[in-house]
């Protein structure tokens, strides 16, 4: 018997993520506390994913993205907290708090699992997709840092360094999302006999995000825009990821009390 329900564990994770976002707001010197404060949220978030999978296994729990994305982002922030500039860290933690709040208020934890998901490609599709989107959010945080902190002598953040980090994480996220789409096409072909189900709105919005970052990599590699323009493009990635990959999976409003 499970002591905590998935939704209760999700609320604990969201609360921990909000608490972890407070120290960097008070002082950049308190960023070291973020790692410690994120651990309870990560453990609670892992419990949510495990509970949903346990209920659906070996099939795939539907609408896992809004729960899995905060977990992937929290793991990245926890592991790399020292490599974030103060502004990038604040931005990443703000995104984490907002995503976890959205998952609490608009959960889809009452739907049946996919019927045709016995192939491991289905699970790779979801896991790689969430990891790729988390990398996009880290890229967006560094893009915002390039706009706010670049040129600040006290912050010791150079425009080139911030853009380089934004590009690295954008490229890594792009690679992971490409692998995710490839696994999704194999899963679709094995289950439905076609590599693409065009009437799936979530798939189309995910591909829109992929094209957005295709353009971003093109801009970075060709230097078609000036550095500030590329920084703005990278920073806007958060809104693209949220609107195109998170919103389609959010359910109806549910009171947290």
From TrEMBL:
Q: Which domain of life is it from?
A: Bacteria
Q: Does the keyword Transmembrane helix apply?
A: yes
What keyword terms does UniProt attach to this protein? Membrane, Transmembrane, Transmembrane helix
One function term, GO molecular function aspect: heme binding
Query: Ranges for the Cytochrome c assembly protein domain?
Result: 64-245
BP GO terms, sorted: cytochrome complex assembly
Q: Does the keyword Signal apply?
A: no
Span-the-membrane segments of this chain are 6-26, 33-51, 63-81, 88-108, 120-145, 166-189, 201-219, 231-251
Query: By what name is this protein known?
Result: Cytochrome c assembly protein
What's the source species for this entry? Pelobacter propionicus (strain DSM 2379 / NBRC 103807 / OttBd1)
């Amino acid at each position: 018997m499970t002591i905590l329900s998935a939704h209760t564990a999700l609320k604990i994770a969201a609360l921990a993520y909000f608490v972890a976002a407070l120290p960097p707001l008070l002082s950049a010197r308190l960023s070291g506390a973020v790692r410690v404060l994120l651990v309870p949220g990560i453990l609670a978030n892992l419990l949510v994913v495990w509970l949903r999978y346990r209920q659906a296994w070996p099939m795939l729990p539907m609408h896992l993205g809004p729960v899995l994305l905060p977990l992937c982002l929290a793991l990245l922030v926890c592991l790399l907290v020292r490599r974030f500039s103060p502004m990038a860290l604040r931005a990443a933690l703000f995104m984490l708090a907002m995503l976890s709040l959205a998952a609490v208020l608009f959960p889809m934890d009452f739907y049946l699992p996919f019927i045709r998901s016995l192939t491991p490609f289905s699970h790779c599709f979801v896991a790689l997709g969430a990891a790729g989107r988390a990398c996009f959010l880290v890229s967006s945080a560094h893009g915002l840092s390039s706009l706010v902190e670049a040129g600040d002598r006290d912050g010791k953040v150079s425009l080139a360094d911030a853009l380089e980090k934004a590009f690295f994480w954008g490229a890594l996220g792009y690679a992971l999302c490409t692998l995710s789409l490839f696994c999704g096409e194999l899963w679709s072909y094995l289950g439905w006999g076609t590599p693409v189900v065009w009437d799936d709105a979530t798939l189309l919005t995910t591909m829109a995000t992929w094209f957005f970052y295709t353009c971003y990599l093109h801009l970075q590699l060709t230097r078609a825009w000036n550095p500030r323009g590329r920084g703005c493009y990278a920073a806007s990635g958060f809104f693209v990821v949220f609107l195109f990959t998170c919103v389609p999976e959010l359910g109806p409003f549910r009171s947290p009390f």
